[in-house]
Amino acid sequence: MDIKIIISVLFGFSLIYLAYTERFKSYIALLAFQGVLMFSFTLAEVIKTTAIEFIILLFETLIFKSIIIPILLSRILKVTNISRVHKHALPASYNILFSLIALFASITAVSVMHINESAKIYMITSFFALFTGLILIITHRLMFSHLVGFLVIENAAILFSYSLTNRFPLLINIGITLDILITVLILGMLLTRVGSRYGDLKVDRLSSLRD
Amino acid sequence: MIVPLTYFIISVLLIALLNIFPSKRIFKAGSLIYMAIHGLLASFALMNKGVTILSFFTFDALAVLFILLSALTGFVAVIHSFSYMTDETVPAQNRFYSGIIGLLFAANGVYLANHAVITWIFIEATTIAVTILIYHHRHSNALEAAWKYVFISSTGIALAYIGILFVGGNISSESGSSILFYKNMAQSIITADPLWLKLSFLFILLGYSAKLETFPLYTISIDANYAAPASASALMATVLVNAGFTAIYRIYAAFSAHAIIIWMNHVLVFTGIISVFIATAYMLKVKNLKRLLGYSTLEIMGLVLIGMGQGKSWHYAPFLLLVMNSLVKSVLFLQTGYLHKITGTYNIFKNKNYLEINKWGALILLTGFIFIAAIPPSGYFIAELNLFKGLLIQKKYIIFAIVTIMVSLLLFGLFSRIFSILFSSGENPQPVKQNIWLFLLQLSMLLISMLYCFYQIPYIENLIADLLK
After folding, report:
1. CA B219 to chain centre
2. How far apart are CA A184 and CA B150, in angstroms?
3. Given an 8 Å threshold on Cβ–Cβ distance, is A211 in contact with B285?
4. CA A75: distance to chain centroid?
5. Is B166 within 8 Å of A160 when comparing Cβ atoms?
6. Cα separation values, B92 from B83, B147, B240, B340, B342, Å
7. Bond from prior residue into B377 cis (ω within 30 degrees of 0)
8. Alpha carbon of B71 to those of A60, B159, B372, B397: distances in Å?
9. Contact, B268 vs B308, CB < 8 A?
10. Distance CA B78, CA B96 (A)
11. Does the pLDDT value for residue B203 go beyond 70?
12. A94–chain B nearest CA distance, Å
């Protein structure tokens, strides 16, 4: 079987597990695993990349997504002292159901689009990651889950970049890496401030701005 | 070439300098130096229309127009900041001035970028600058607004990025990202798959709507306008909105050679109508003056989208609306900040008898509200007259009727609130002396808007004419 298909399927499983699990440590481990998988995509396409592009991608996926981001997220967990999703969040069974619907929607969306056969599996994974990120944001009540949802959407963006372009343009990769780094730093800082001000990270705390 | 390079380098150095040597004198001097080089950039733009520098930045008509406006509104906002920031601590001023320079710098980058990814990077940079400004006061409302802004805006920008990838991957299989130069995109678009282009446009419109302050991500901008200091809100409602417009317009212009142009126009009109509808509904119930101004921006941007959706030959109205919004909305936010400094509240119904308290400030508020209501002699009047004329000539009677009804209702909300602030009787109003220089600055911006009702400035007209070609 093609290595790229195996990587895509593993990425899909990591997304389904993300919907199922309720422990934040598992979220971080899964994000790190997705970073490794994305680096594997790079390795599978290594012939098409230049040396500089390869180094940037190595940094973006393996070092940044699998090491730096998980360390930052672990620190946030430590400071805010949370470990599981909110007890009023949707039960895992519902999340799996949504996840499967998202997978079905991704397959349907890709089947009606004019895409190369070789890129289809990437595209399904990309759409699935996008929908999973959105589901995490919509169905969860703790801000940490929202941050994880955002990172899954960013992973979807990188997967789209892999599947839609023959190469990995340097400019795009530098841009998205900077974007994620700065956003996670700012969100992490604000998240810890919310935690210290309100004592927890429930989204309901942030609802005083109304007309 | 030297001027834009100097601008880019000195802007970055100034932000660094402000953080390395924090002192109130350095902040003032740094801001003035920044405005001087921003003015230089605007002069360069005036004389070098069409020039491209460093491959990725082009001084086209849209960039020149918006750089001129950002220089003007930026200068007025910075001068006002000197007065508003006097009581603030050194770290607070440090954050504020760094944020203001960062926002103006990033917005200019968006105006000048001729490549979709460069636009996207500078749009992301505006998010960072705006977050610093929103969280300036450090209270719980500021924290809430900052979290929502950075989270929703970043998610939106990630979606816009996916939209950009849809274009890049669909148009050509050639390597690299040269296809994402707007010029190349426009040339290669005709053969592209319409489904991909539609998806791409939807993602980009959705993602950048947080910056343009339109449906669906407008809510974070309203909160941001409320939580940030008034002079920062003045820039967010003008300079930042223009940046959001630029990011969407460049894609719209590049796609317009394709048959999906009709579909894109329908989407813009639909989004515009929803935006005006939401603005109307909230302006009839809102109690906070800064939020009222935020909803007014939502209404104006809704009208801009409706105007864009009428087709290129009717784009004069939306461009003029953007010019007027930059001139008038910035003044209204600045005067609102002055009002807050005197009365200590933005609550419309707690602010009474402003006419007695500060008659010159009240004059600015009243004139500004008359202007955003598009009542002559406002420049908005010319813009909205053109917009409604376009709708009638194209026999879009239903859209005309819907928008007219909503705008009429909205005027009621607008004037009932401003009259309450100006004329309702309060307890023993203590007159306050308005700073004459700030008053003159605000008045001059309103006079430029008024001038446009009688005399259309040829240079601005030529820039807009260039955009209509």
Report:
1. 15
2. 10
3. yes
4. 18
5. yes
6. 14, 19, 22, 18, 20
7. yes
8. 37, 30, 21, 39
9. yes
10. 10
11. yes
12. 24
The model's pLDDT over A161-181, given as tens digits with 9 standing for 90+, comes to 888 775 556 777 777 777 777
> What digits encode the pLDDT tens for the residues A115-138?
877 788 889 999 999 999 999 999
| Percentage of chain A lying above the pLDDT 70 cut | 94
Q: Is the dihedral of CA B449, B452, B457, B463 positive or negative?
A: positive
User: The tokens of B63 are what?
Assistant: 């960039």
* Torsion-angle region of B458 (φ positive above 0: left; ψ -120 to 50: alpha; else: beta): alpha
| pLDDT value of residue A61 | 85
* Beta-carbon-side half-sphere exposure of residue A2 (alpha carbons within 13 Å): 12
| Separation of alpha carbons A207 and B213, rounded Å | 20
Closest approach of chain B CAs to the CA of A26, in angstroms?
22
**Amino acid letter, residue B416:** S
Interchain pair B177, A160: CB under 8 A: no
> CA nearest B166: which of A133, A127, A46?
A127
Which pair of structure tokens corresponds to residue A190?
């604000």
The count of structural domains within chain B is 1
Mean model confidence pLDDT for chain A: 85
- The answer to whether B150 and A186 have CB atoms below 8 angstroms apart is yes
**Average pLDDT over every residue of B77-98:** 93
- Residue B314 falls within a domain, yes or no? yes
| Dihedral pair phi/psi, residue B288, rounded to 5° | -105, 130
**8 A C-beta contact, residue A119 and residue A161:** no
A182 conformational bin, left if phi > 0, alpha if psi -120 to 50, beta if neither: alpha
Which residues form the domain of B394?
260-469
B227 CB-contact burial (10 Å; exposed 0-12 / middle 13-18 / buried 19+): buried
Q: Is the pLDDT assigned to residue B373 strictly greater than 90?
A: yes
B144 contacts A210 by C-beta, under 8 angstroms: no
Q: Does B128 sit within 8 Å of A167, measured CB to CB?
A: no
Domain residue extents for chain A:
3-202
Instruction: Identify whether B417 is part of a domain.
Output: yes
Q: Would you state the pLDDT for residue A169?
A: 65
pLDDT band at A184 (very low <50, low <70, confident <90, very high): confident
Which residue has tokens 């340097």? A170
Q: Are strands B52-53 and B57-58 parallel, antiparallel or unpaired?
A: antiparallel
